[in-house]
């Protein structure tokens, strides 16, 4: 009996191929288990090569699903791989078709352009601004099946202008019209050619897994520069407690479903924009009998100090570089036990009103980045979610 633990990853993979040809199904099962359980690091380092092989064999289903799971959660491993440019077109198409890729869409676009230019014969080596119509036609022919699979809705306006527009001649006219319409109106109601945003492992209508990685780093008081690189994994599980479009936008619903819970993240999508504001509160939103009084228009709100609470904003939720975080000394979490008609309330910083989807009484004030934050006061809310977070990865 072969001890697979003593064999290299390459040898086990070769044995797996031989087992398929000889129809030794028990060995096929054990070899896949060994690769997945004992040689996961080798798989990640050789992902493109392994995917080339396993895609050819139906009996390698478990290993194929494992590789696809890695790609979905850590897409950079394949899109930034030195082997990416040698990827065969059918495999690239199957990757782009996946709704669960966790990677900034503009990076997927950049990688696609690199793959296309590498795999197009006789393409000009001049800057794209000097390309001829024949160059664009050749690249379009190479990327014809891939171009419609990009989720243009997930690309910020700035990135679209700077990184996609130079290649606009390879994008079909009707798609360009819809992209322009989306960026001008922020509405998806008239989009028929464009694919919707990719789905996310997090249960949210507003944020995706890359947002949770960034928020997790803020909670841990760490600084990361590239949430899609895989160097920083979200250390917390985000459990949806409250969703305005699902549960109603009444403040009483917010307090019923999440007000007494500790360790929550609030996410708010501002109406008719791509802007997001939010907060992290390690305490609760309702205070207790020992809370002090805080006079707000003589309504005698109670408050409790929560030093580690913070607020944040995204000028464009598709652009993580637009994120701003505000940490203040002496954050006061406010609550009026006699008039529970407000959602999250942090003194002088954040207030979400009752029925916030029907009025513009909510406000957010960033005292550190006030010049950049153009949505400080009086906004209406499109969506509003509260997550309870729990530590998922141990030190």
From TrEMBL:
Residues 205-390 form the TLDc domain. PROSITE patterns: TLDC (PS51886). InterPro entries: BACK (IPR011705), BTB_POZ_domain_cont_9 (IPR052407), TLDc_dom (IPR006571). GO terms for cellular component: cytoplasm. This is 1273_t:CDS:1.
């Amino acid at each position: 009996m072969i001890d697979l633990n003593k064999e290299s990853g390459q040898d086990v993979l070769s044995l797996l191929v031989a087992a398929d040809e000889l129809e030794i199904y028990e060995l096929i099962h054990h070899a896949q288990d060994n690769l997945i359980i004992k040689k996961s690091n080798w798989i990640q380092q050789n992902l493109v090569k392994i995917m080339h092989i396993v895609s050819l064999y139906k009996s390698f289903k478990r290993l194929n699903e494992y590789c696809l799971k890695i790609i979905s959660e850590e897409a950079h491993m394949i899109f930034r791989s030195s082997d990416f440019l040698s990827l065969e077109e059918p495999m690239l198409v199957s990757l782009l078709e996946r709704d669960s890729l966790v990677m900034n869409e503009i990076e997927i676009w950049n990688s696609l352009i690199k793959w296309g230019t590498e795999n197009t014969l006789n393409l000009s080596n001049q800057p794209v601004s000097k390309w001829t119509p024949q160059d664009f036609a050749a690249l379009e022919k190479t990327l014809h099946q891939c171009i419609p699979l990009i989720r243009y809705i997930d690309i910020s306006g700035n990135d679209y202008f700077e990184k996609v527009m130079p290649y606009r001649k390879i994008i079909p006219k009707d798609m360009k019209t819809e992209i322009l319409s989306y960026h001008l109106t922020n509405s998806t109601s008239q989009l028929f050619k464009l694919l919707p945003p990719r789905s996310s492992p997090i249960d949210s209508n507003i944020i995706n897994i890359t947002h949770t990685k960034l928020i997790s780093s803020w909670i841990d008081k760490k600084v990361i520069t590239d949430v899609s690189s895989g160097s920083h994994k979200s250390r917390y599980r985000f459990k949806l407690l409250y969703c305005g479009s699902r549960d109603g936008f009444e403040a009483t619903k917010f307090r019923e479903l999440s007000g007494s819970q500790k360790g929550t993240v609030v996410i708010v999508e501002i109406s008719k924009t791509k802007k997001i504001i939010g907060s992290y509160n390690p305490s609760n939103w309702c205070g207790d009998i020992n809370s002090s009084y805080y006079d707000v228009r003589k309504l005698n709100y109670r408050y409790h100090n929560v030093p580690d609470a913070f607020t944040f904003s995204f000028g464009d939720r598709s652009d993580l570089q637009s994120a701003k975080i505000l940490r203040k000394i002496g954050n006061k979490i406010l609550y009026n036990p006699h008039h529970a008609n407000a959602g999250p309330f942090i003194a002088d910083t954040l207030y979400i009103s009752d029925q916030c989807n029907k009025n513009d009484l909510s406000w957010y004030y960033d005292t550190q980045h006030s010049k950049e934050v153009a949505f400080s006061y009086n906004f209406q809310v499109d969506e509003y979610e509260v997550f309870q977070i729990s530590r998922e990865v141990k030190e």
